[in-house]
Write a structure and sequence with these properties.
heterodimer; A: five-stranded mixed sheet; 5 helices; about 15% strand; elongated; B: alpha+beta; about 25% strand; globular
Chain lengths: ~160, ~775
């Protein structure tokens, strides 16, 4: 009997057939491959491929996960949000974190930025008022080589300050 | 003197044009592009550090469904890359663990991987050599052979040393040594002479987050289209064109980090182009390295070993500098000889008043992964060694390093060597004030308590401070052109400016917006496609702030002049009496009489301005790195607790970008290569043991020091229309030497001569090894 997998990504439902025939989702396919290659959501990046750099981070039920080491077949029924899903799909309004990263220019090459924003979003969903130390720990799995960390701290803390006002 | 003029955009923070794309994930990088019919290329790599391929059987792989091309040395084109061109696309003589043995292009990744597994290879394993000391000895394993016939300008490959010189010298003699004055006399005049070896030799991973990407499609047998994740994409048409003899076009979307390292991508490019040639005309092939491939088979930072001797007087005068330095270039030399030339120039800029020199460079091949370009470009590696040896002399004479470096740095009106081997005159860039202001900002004179006294000690934690300086003659060098096109209500900029993180496209757009006095949103930049834009040298060496901005400014001025000439005929006002603001042209002081661009420029007609920048080698930048470290005297662990990156940039074009470039001195083998990061090689197999992001160490979000930046502004005589000078390439180049100075300072003057100063080395000098 044909096995189906249902994904809920950025508010939309998708159903895929699981198997090894051309066009099917094999058991070995990662969530990153599915969202990039089947859904065209290329904001999540393939870099280390072993869950070490954070470039592929997505929100899964509100938690940041490395989609390069998640198998798609394990994601049945999960609520997945990618970097593209943070922006309001109707108005185009940026998520406050996206706007803050833009305003603070909290990126240089920008390759890691989607993953960093996702990790910061997961933190703020869990704890809207984190300390600097908690922000540092929450982002410790996201590598950045350009050294945009300091601007990222400023961007994230601007959101927290605004929420206090 | 401080620049007084207020600009509309220059010096102000503005959103980068790709900013919304980056924060929403819409900005495309190479692997995000849709290229119809794209085949996936994978590479079979040597498990041995040195071997001859005895036999290779690809029959099974070629027969597999979905496999389009299989390439080995037998059917690969005889293209070569490197300096001089010597590294073959594929060779039966494999030279490092990870060397390419065969490639497969297939309809998908799984098929390509299965095909690689089906290729049968028999090797004759040979002895290998992994360090420069052993590699240059008679009888050492031959990384390249007599039959490879490597020679340039009359010099031959010998004892695993590549011939000196690169295209930097043109037809002139190779620049690989400085011999002037009389070093023996200099040593005699010195109050102290220090001699010894310093090693910055482990090799490090430049660390671009996006692995190298290249794709190739042959349009016909003479025309090749390439896509590349490159910092300087115009190097691809040039260098791949030279290797293949074909006409090459390149398309380059945003590049996910480079730090100098993903510049020409030459070997990966020709490997991809060759595989695409085997696949056939019209079949695009994509090569996106895995992270372990990037870390162990792509181009790393070079290693340096310096056997040196330096003489110094009590007054801080350096009387002589001599010795040999050996650059470990692994199996490849992507312009390592050029890095030699700039290493000599950069050291000469910093120790500029030294009258006697006898320093010679050697570029040595080993059975390690190839070397490429990385931020700091040779000077970082050589100065990490030579300035550390100099610290021995400063310590012996109890001299404050800030005094010594301030005094010896090149000043206006003084000559310095640059990459051609010639000397150039500094026309007026004085960094003395930068040294003085940064010294105050870091509170150096209170924190520095002498060479053998830590800044402070708290229990088993000792703190030390360190300082070093770097300079480069690149910022105004090499050519760049730009077109600015006016159409209806748009200003379109055709600048060959890629984006790999420095925000140089923003600086170009600002320059054009400033020249026309318009909002930023009126200005559009073309994408990076070599057929669409004029050519440049690339954004390496902090060039773009002068070269690209200068060309864009000239093109904008030319377009404005032509616009005024057109407007003059329509408005009946002499062109020289017109001015423009917000897309309106009007007689000076009378905007109410103005006409919009759209009324002046006929429909279906463009006004195009052309601008060129001509390179010069005599504008040097300067970056000062200060650090404080805390050393745990029980464990040997080093934590960088405070840092200052400082410079005079002439004019700040974009405040956020300058601050972040200075902070970037922490990354890309800057501060962290002083104490933390480096490759670990298995000495038995030659295999890189830390070729993953989990195993290779660098600073993370939860381990950063307090980082201060200082970007000063003087009026500098540069070709940047606002007087700016780029610094991005060198912001961390002095940092390793500063870190090692700080660690020794924390240790009360105990000496370490090998980077990185990891806990094992610190415990060894503390006499606590093996406890």
């Amino acid at each position: 009997m044909e096995r189906l997998i249902k994904l809920h990504v950025n508010g939309n439902d998708y159903t895929f057939s699981v198997g090894n025939a051309i066009g099917q989702v094999p058991e070995s396919e990662t969530l990153l491959d599915t969202i990039r290659n089947r859904l065209g959501l290329t904001g999540s990046k393939l870099a280390c491929g072993e869950g070490a750099c954070g470039c592929c981070s997505v929100l899964m039920d509100g938690k940041a996960v490395s989609s390069c080491i998640m198998l798609t077949v394990e994601c049945e029924g999960k609520d997945i949000v990618t970097i593209e899903g943070l922006q309001n799909p109707v108005t185009g309004e940026l998520d406050p974190l996206q706007q803050a990263f833009l305003d603070y220019n909290a990126f240089q090459c920008g390759f890691c930025t989607p993953g960093i924003i996702i990790a910061a979003k997961a933190l703020l969903l869990e704890n809207p008022n984190p300390t600097r130390k908690e922000i540092e720990e929450a982002l410790a799995g996201n590598y950045c080589r350009c050294i945009s960390h300091y601007q990222a701290f400023d961007a994230i803390e601007s959101i927290i300050e605004r929420s206090k006002a | 003197m401080t620049t007084k003029k207020e600009y509309r955009h220059i010096g102000k923070n503005r959103h980068r044009q790709d900013g919304v794309g980056i924060v929403t994930g819409r900005q495309q990088f190479c692997d995000d592009l849709h290229i119809p019919g794209l085949l996936v290329m994978k590479v079979l790599r040597s498990p041995y550090a040195h071997a001859d391929i005895v036999s290779i059987d690809t029959t099974e792989a070629e027969a597999m469904t979905g496999v389009v091309a299989v390439m080995t040395y037998k059917n690969a084109p005889d293209w070569k890359v490197g300096t001089p061109a010597f590294r073959r696309v594929l060779d039966p003589h494999v030279k490092f663990v990870g060397d390419a043995v065969a490639t497969v292009a297939a309809v998908d990744e799984n098929t390509a991987i299965k095909a690689l597994e089906a290729i049968k290879v028999e090797y004759n394993v040979l002895p290998a050599v992994y360090n420069v000391r052993e590699s240059i000895l008679d009888g050492a394993p031959e990384v390249y052979r007599e039959s490879d016939n490597i020679q340039d300008k009359g010099n031959k490959y010998h004892n695993n040393q590549l011939p000196p010189g690169s295209y930097f010298e043109g037809p002139d003699a190779p620049f690989y040594f400085i011999k002037e004055g009389d070093v023996e006399k200099g040593y005699e005049e010195a109050d102290v002479v220090v001699e010894g070896t310093v090693e910055y030799a482990v090799g490090t991973f430049p660390g671009a987050p996006e692995p190298p990407f290249t794709a190739a499609r042959w349009e016909d047998e003479d025309h090749l289209t390439m896509w590349g994740s490159s910092q300087g994409p115009n190097m691809l048409p040039k260098l791949v064109g030279m290797a293949t003899g074909k006409r090459v076009t390149v398309i380059a979307p945003n590049c996910g980090g480079s730090y100098g390292n993903k510049d020409a991508l030459t070997y990966n490019s020709v490997l991809t182009a060759a595989t695409a040639l085997v696949a056939g005309v019209g079949k695009p092939v994509r090569f996106y390295m895995t992270k372990p491939e990037q870390m162990s088979a792509f181009e790393r930072r070079l290693g340096c070993t310096y056997d040196g001797k330096i003489g110094m007087k009590k007054d801080g005068t350096i009387t002589a500098i001599g010795g040999d330095f050996y650059f470990d270039t692994g199996v490849g030399s992507e312009l390592t000889q050029g890095q030699v030339a700039e290493a000599l120039g950069e050291t000469n800029l910093v120790l500029n008043h030294t009258p006697n020199w006898d320093v010679t460079a050697h570029v040595v091949c080993t059975n390690r992964q190839p070397v490429g370009i990385a931020r700091g470009f040779g000077g970082q590696e050589f100065k990490a060694c030579s300035l550390h040896l100099l610290s021995r002399a400063m310590k012996a004479l109890d001299l404050n390093p800030l005094d010594v470096f301030t005094m010896n740095f090149n000043k206006p009106g003084e000559l310095f060597y640059w990459r051609t081997g010639k000397k150039y005159l500094n026309p007026g860039l004085d960094y003395t004030n930068s040294f003085n202001e940064a010294r105050k900002r870091f509170d150096w004179d209170n924190r520095w308590k002498g060479w053998t006294t830590p800044s402070k000690v708290e229990g088993n934690k000792a703190y030390g401070v360190g300082f070093s300086v770097h300079a480069s003659g690149d910022p105004q060098s090499d050519e760049c052109s730009c077109y600015v096109r006016l159409e209806n209500d748009q200003i379109i900029v055709h600048s060959p400016t890629p984006e790999s993180g420095m925000g140089q496209r923003l600086a170009v757009a600002k320059t054009v917006a400033e020249t026309f006095d318009v909002d930023m949103n009126v200005v559009s930049m073309t994408k990076f496609e070599s057929l669409m834009n004029p050519v440049d040298f690339g954004l390496t060496g902090s060039r773009g702030t002068i070269t690209h901005v200068s060309a864009a400014y000239a093109a904008a001025c030319d377009a404005k002049k032509k616009l005024f000439e057109t407007a003059s005929k329509i408005m009946g006002v002499p062109a020289e009496e017109l001015e423009t603001k917000d897309m309106l042209v009007y007689p000076k002081g009378a905007p109410e009489k103005g006409l919009p661009f759209a009324a002046l420029i006929p429909p279906y007609f463009s006004i195009t301005g052309v601008g060129d920048h001509e390179g010069e080698f005599n504008r040097n930048n300067c970056v000062l790195n200060f650090v404080e470290v805390c050393v745990d005297l029980d464990t040997g662990k080093v934590v960088v607790t405070d840092a200052l990156g400082a410079s005079d940039v002439g004019k700040v074009m974009s405040p956020f970008e300058v601050k972040m470039q200075l902070e970037g001195g922490l990354g890309t083998n800057g501060i962290d290569s002083g104490h933390l990061e480096g490759y670990v090689l298995d000495p038995e197999t030659g295999r890189t043991m830390n070729n993953t992001m989990i195993d290779y160490k660098w600073s993370t979000f939860n381990s950063l020091p307090h980082f201060d930046t200082l970007a000063m502004e003087s009026v500098f005589p540069t070709a940047n229309p606002y007087g700016g000078i780029g610094i991005g390439e060198i912001t961390g180049a002095a940092a390793p030497a500063a870190v090692l100075m700080a660690i020794e300072n924390a240790l009360g003057g105990l000496e370490i001569n090998e980077y990185p100063a990891t806990p094992d080395k610190i415990l060894r000098v503390l006499g606590k090894e093996g406890r």
